[in-house]
Amino acid sequence: MKALSEQLSELAERARKVEDVVAAAREDNRARLETKQRELQQSVAEGKARADQRITAARETERKRWNALHASVDQWFTELRADADKHRAERDVRKAQRRADMLEEDAVNTINLALYVLDQAEYAVIDAVVARADADDLTQHS
């Protein structure tokens, strides 16, 4: 398992990559966005594989909880992407505008979810560090 500091550095790097995507969107650089989208598909698959490995190593109750969470998140994103692909073919301007509005709202909601999960991750990191300090204190005093 990676050290917490390594994981946080990786998370910061991923956040910078999201900023690059936002910059490309502002520049209306479609080719850059499509390239980034293909890269992200690979990254998502790799991240899921890493998470699956960690889940496999977890205790059974934790494994069930994480599997359920991953399945739920995967299903949500699968539905969003399938819906987006279906509507991309539509040529009606009003429908296309509504769809763009909906996808922008989905992006905002996904960012809000990520921020919430980051808060939870920060709490979990602090909880883990405090628990390790408590365990170390107990070890020293016994």
Automatic annotation (TrEMBL):
Residues 47-56 have a biased composition (Basic and acidic residues). Residues 35-56 are annotated as: Disordered. Keywords: Coiled coil. It comes from the Bacteria. Residues 86-113 form a coiled coil. The keyword Coiled coil applies. This is Uncharacterized protein. It comes from Streptomyces rimosus subsp. rimosus.
